[in-house]
Design goal:
alpha/beta, Rossmann fold, binds adenosine-5'-diphosphate
Length: about 160
């Protein structure tokens, strides 16, 4: 059984993340979407809120082999504990590359078994990020093209000034 972990801040989950979850869930027997703490990015949603939005997404989209979990330690410790095979990350553009490359190299240095696989984002989501969604929603803009309708209201209410 091949187990993959898709870690990220998911602050909040966007259509871009969901597209990666959908594709990764077809490539592996099981996928864990792992809400993790990114010390470089201040979060707007609590870990619990981010997990709830992802759980609703997974149920709504009917992803039967996807689990949502959270962890506030080193990804590689979680990876080893779950006996995972692969780390999945999404690549939007060249700007993602440097950071993602560094992370993948570091994780492999910490654990030689930790392979990272990158899925290139769908063209229409290349520009899409959680921080963009937060910025637009905070000032009352329309984010309905960026997040699914079943969690739209919750995100809007939470972010509106
Ligand atoms: P992190 O803080 O770990 O970068 P994010 O939630 O911002 O967490 O992103 C998690 C992963 O999803 C990263 O690999 C990121 O590149 C990828 N990702 C984010 N937005 C998109 C998108 N629109 N299309 C494809 N991949 C994306």
């Amino acid at each position: 059984m091949k187990l993959a972990i898709y870690p990220g801040s998911f602050d909040p989950v966007t259509n871009g993340h969901i597209e990666i979850i959908s594709r990764a869930s077809k490539l592996f027997d099981k996928l864990i979407v792992l809400v993790s703490v990114n010390m470089f990015k201040p979060a707007s949603f609590t870990i619990e809120e981010r997990k709830e939005l992802l759980e609703e997404t997974v149920a709504h989209e009917g992803f039967t082999n996807v689990e949502v979990d959270s962890f506030d330690g080193l990804l590689i410790d979680y990876f080893n504990r779950r006996k995972a095979d692969v780390i999945v990350r999404g690549l939007r553009a060249i700007t993602d590359f440097e950071y993602e490359f560094q992370m993948a190299q570091t994780n492999r240095r910490l654990c030689y078994k930790a392979e990272t696989i990158f899925l290139a984002s769908k063209t229409e989501y290349t520009y899409l990020s959680s921080s963009m969604v937060k910025q637009i929603a905070t000032f009352g803009g329309d984010i309905s093209d960026f997040v699914p309708e079943y969690i739209l209201d919750r995100i809007v209410k939470r972010l509106k000034k």
